[in-house]
Each structure stands twice: as C-alpha cells, then as structure tokens.
Amino acid sequence: MAKDDEKKESGEWKEFFWNPRTHELLGRTASSWGLILLFYLIFYTFLAGMFCLTMYVMLLTLDDYRPTWQDRLATPGMMIRPKGDPLEIVYNVEKTESWDSYIQALDNFLALDVLRLLLQVIGLKPSNDEKSPFVSCSAKAQKMAQTNETNAEVEYFPQNGTFNLMYYPYYGKRAQVNYSQPLVAVKFTDISFNTDFNVECKINSSTQFKISERDKFAGRVIFKLRINKA
To answer: Distance between CA 79 and CA 222 in Å, rounded?
Structure first.
C-alpha cells in the first residue's frame, strides 16, 4: 500500500513538471510562459530606460568647473604640517631620530602639487576690502594658560603671515590645473624647553570668519608643542 502511494506521488510530481497530455511545463503552457517572459522583458527594459534617462538629466545639470551644490562651512578649515596624531609636535633637540619623521613629512608635503593651510573652497573670497588675510599664532605654556600670558615669540614666513590675494578665488582643478595653494610657515623663538605649549593659529580676514568653540578646525587649528632638552 505504501509503495502504491509513493508511485502515485512520484507520478504527480512528474506530471506537474511536464504534462504530456496538456503540454504544460510547471503548470503553464508555452503561450503562458511566453506572456510572462514578455511582461518582465518590457518591465525591466522600462526600468533600465528610466534609470538611463535619470542619469542623463542629472549629468546635464553638472558643471565640469564648479559643483552645482556646495555643502560647505561658512569658515574654511585649517591644518598644520607636519601633523602628528594626535595633533602634537614633540621632539628632543639632541636626538635627531626624534624629529627626522617631521622633516620627512614636510618634504613629502612640499612635493605635492597642491599645498594646503587654508583648505580649498571653490569660489572662496577671503577678503572684502582687497586686504590679504593673515595667520596669527599664540603659544602659551600650559602652566600659564589661565593667566593668558604668551610664552613664545612667533615669526611668520612670508612676513606678517599673509596669504597673497593672487591665489584667490580658487576655481577647481580643471580650471587651474597647476594651482598651488599658498601656505604660511611659523617659527617659534625664545621658547622654553621641556614645557608643554598650547598653540592656537587662526585666520584673520575682513570677511569675518566665524570661529566656533566647538570646532577647533574651523578657521583655526590648535595643537600641542613640546621641545625637550636634557
């Protein structure tokens, strides 16, 4: 009895897969399968066409020289080189291996095609009165930070730490292929050894960049400087 049931069930499955009497495959005739395949062919062709049309229209709105939408901060960011992780520069003047990595980082940075202190922002005009923006830095020993006393003198290169207006506005890599963004070098003189200094450098401009206390990179950069000597 059990064998008869198994044969019957096996025959039903075979007939479902291919019914020689009705010429149905998996319960559908050839015309039914043809209509289904035709439907999906038209459906996916339509979706592909819609996707291509959408991409074509979107590409028409793009400009090779200027982004259509600029989601940018009102104040450009600043960064230092060489840059440690975290933001600190610590070395011993009597041990060359302690500052060799900083020299290598600067050499690599200066070899780049595009230089950064102010980060590149297309169309940015850093001045409204034809006066060059400039960088100002202050270095305060941590033990004297509460008294707001400056403990190191600063020299700037170029003088006064200015960014030449000839470099602005920036129009992008396509329009200015060989563009090199200006930078300002800072030298700390008469600095105390074996002391942690909190250094803050910020950009000053007639456009009145907003300095946010929550963002230490918007229009400024803050880092630690320590020079050790036995």
So the answer is: 9
Please check whether residue 135 is in contact with residue 202, taking contact to mean a CB–CB distance below 8 angstroms. yes
Would you list the DSSP string of 151-171? -SEEEEESGGGBPPGGG-SB-
For residue 182, say if its preceding peptide bond is cis, omega within 30 degrees of 0.
Answer: no
In this predicted structure, the answer to whether residue 115 has a pLDDT above a threshold of 50 is no
Q: Mind listing the pLDDT tens digit for each residue in 7-66?
A: 555 556 676 677 777 777 777 788 888 888 999 999 999 999 999 999 999 888 887 776
Report strand pairing: 185-189 vs 18-19: unpaired
Residue 222: phi and psi, rounded to 5, are -120, 130
Q: In sequence order, which residues have a C-beta less than 8 Å from that of residue 129 and are 6 or more positions away?
A: 206
